[in-house]
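Tutorial handout. Part one gives the primary structure; part two gives the three-dimensional structure as tokens.
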Amino acid sequence: MKVEGYLFLGCALFFGASDIVYWYFSKDPTGTTALALAVLLAALIGYYTLFTGRRLPERPHDWSQPELLRTRALRHSRRDRIGRLEADCL
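Part two.
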């Protein structure tokens, strides 16, 4: 969720810069207000996704190693446990 959060915060920064430039050149209160609301909406969504992303489990694209390496490591750890169990039973 970090990527999505930072994407929306980047959009908020872009809308904020566009809002300032638009207000400077046009002095139109309606368009300036609409862009200000777009800034607030993008910032709200960005903050929400970053805040919620900390509470959720990791998604596959957040893993530091590829899925193939994760499954191999899991398979080897299962073999080790099975081998230990067989040795304990004998």
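Part three, for discussion. The chain is about 80% helix and 0% strand. The longest helix spans residues 2-26.
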